[in-house]
Amino acid sequence: MVKSTVRFPEPVVEEIESLVDDGQFESKSEFYRFSADYVLSRTLDDYEPETIDYEAIEAEVIPDAERELGGDRDADGPPFFESVAFVRKLALRGKFSDAEDFIDHQYVPGDRHAVLLEEILRLYREDTASDDRSPASEREGDPTTRNR
Hints:
Helix content: 55-70%
Region (Disordered): 127-148
Shape: elongated
Largest sheet: none
Distance between the termini: 51 Å
Number of helices: 9
Low-confidence stretches: 66-71
Order of helices and strands: HHHHHHHHH
Protein name: Arc/MetJ-type ribon-helix-helix transcriptional regulator
Number of strands: 0
């Protein structure tokens, strides 16, 4: 193995130490090796993790739903990306209350998907409000678009 020195912010190291203290990892080194292997395996198609007991650590530390792309297959609500498309369609048509109703009826309060959908809806609402406030002539004179 090659030894490499990496500097981390103190709060990051404290969180890692708490995971080691809780028994999630045997040592900080195991955490760092697993973390690097995990990111590489997610980023590179042909990468094979080399951490000892990688699969066992992954199964213990990362729930199945988070390991699968689009990990909401077993969720109670509709598939997330379909929900994003539907909320987007309603927002583009200015039907914000319909989009809110959809989110409220399809997801429980605090669900991570509901929070993201509400944030998407907020951004569309802000875009619509800013379009209503600034006349077209002001937007054409915007310095970010004038020099294109």
